[in-house]
Amino acid sequence: MSKYNFLFSFYFSLGLVCLLVFGVHILVLYLLGLPLFGYMMVQAYLLNVFLAIVIFSFLFLFRVKWKDQIGFLFLGGSMLKFVFFFIFFYPVYKSDGQMETMEFISFFIPYLVCLLLETLFTAKMLNSKS
Questions:
Q1: Which domain, by its residues, includes 21?
Q2: Which of 21, 31, 89, 118 is surrounded by the fewest CB atoms within 10 Å?
Q3: Using one digit for the tens of pLDDT, what is the confidence trace for 25-65?
Q4: Does the record carry Transmembrane as a key word (predicted)?
Q5: Total of domains in the chain
Q6: CA 18, 24, 30: angle at the middle one, nearest 5?
Q7: What is the pTM assigned to this prediction?
């Protein structure tokens, strides 16, 4: 497998898994009679996927040069996602004085899915010989 095939494998897996999870998320909201696209859910999925692509691409490009620092860079990427949450989502979620569970879940599900895929692929990348 060429080195860039691995990167595109991450992109494909991320896109596919996030689309599937998004579909299940919409289905659950529908079955519960909740607004399907409320709570900034679409923005949360898009932002988390975009940031996962940027962060993992950065890790991939510097995997050899900064191999010993990849863990710290990975943690920095996770912190970056929280910064985006507190800048763009938190003020909207807290605008009524409280954050509802559905608001939190709408951001946390795509965050968790992207984080899990980033973690799996980063570990696989670090364990590979190239």
A1: 3-127
A2: 31
A3: 999 999 999 999 888 999 999 999 999 999 999 999 998 88
A4: yes
A5: 1
A6: 135
A7: 0.89
